[in-house]
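User: Just a sanity check before I run the rest of the batch. Below are the structure tokens for the first item. I only need the designed sequence back.
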């Protein structure tokens, strides 16, 4: 949705932001480790591989599919699975399909404040934060030398949120990045202190799988090797789910703490 989107009915999600980014595609190894995980999950759970790929990997969400049934120009999930079942190399089929039909094309409509974007979730009156490395400089996006730039990103983001969604009363997030101090320091303590581990409903999310990627969206070989070794020796689903190096944390705090932290007056919010 564009920057002129107005609040809709409860449950609507509005994508909001600033400037158009340059978004890199994921590397092939990112899909390979998910296929490995899915194969083991299928073996241990007895679930159909299509269900496992959809609900327990980030693959489905990375494909620009006809998910609503009303866009005949896009392939369907069944088309992907038909080819997947016939493929000599499921790994190569998956990556080739991704490169032809990846969600990056749709993300061009999404707008960013530097490395951050947000959704407004009207049913919860909540601003949901997202982070992606869109900093093309020679320094890491979370490096100390880029800290002020990231703070400026968030200041602009919350200024926008206060104007577009004055009824918002909380900020929420889910990410493995709360293990990284350079990420935590960008937020008010009142938000950081609410971090709680999430154990369900996260296996299809970049918030979990993104920990395997570096800032160039290439695989982090140290984490990949440990993950592959761990997956290979598991005999239970509980053990398999614990193979991820970092868990995902959920956070939630009143939005006024963010207005204060980023030196914004903010909007009056309803109680």
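Assistant: Here's the designed sequence for the first item:
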């Amino acid at each position: 949705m564009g920057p002129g989107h107005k609040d809709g009915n409860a449950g609507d999600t509005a994508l909001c932001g600033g400037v158009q980014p340059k978004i890199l595609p994921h590397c092939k190894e990112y899909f390979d480790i998910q296929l490995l995980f899915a194969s083991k999950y299928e073996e241990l759970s007895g679930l159909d591989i299509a269900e496992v790929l959809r609900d327990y990997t980030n693959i489905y969400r990375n494909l620009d599919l006809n998910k609503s049934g009303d866009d005949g120009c896009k392939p369907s999930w069944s088309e992907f699975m038909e080819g997947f079942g016939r493929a000599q190399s499921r790994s190569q089929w998956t990556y080739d399909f991704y490169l032809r039909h990846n969600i990056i094309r749709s993300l061009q409509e999404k707008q960013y404040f530097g490395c951050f974007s947000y959704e407004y979730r009207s049913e919860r009156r909540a601003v949901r934060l997202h982070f992606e490395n869109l900093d093309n400089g020679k320094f890491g996006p979370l490096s100390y030398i880029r800290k002020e730039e990231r703070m400026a990103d968030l200041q602009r983001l919350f200024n926008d949120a206060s104007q577009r969604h004055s009824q918002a009363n909380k900020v929420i997030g889910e990410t493995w990045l709360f293990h990284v101090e350079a990420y935590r320091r960008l937020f008010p303590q009142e938000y950081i202190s609410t971090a709680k581990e999430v154990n369900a409903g996260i296996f299809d999310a970049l918030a979990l799988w993104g920990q395997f990627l570096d800032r160039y969206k290439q695989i982090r070989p140290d984490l990949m090797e440990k993950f592959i070794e761990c997956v290979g020796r598991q005999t239970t689903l509980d053990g398999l789910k614990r193979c991820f190096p970092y868990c995902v944390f959920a956070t939630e705090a009143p939005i006024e703490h963010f207005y204060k932290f980023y030196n914004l007056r903010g909007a009056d919010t309803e109680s």
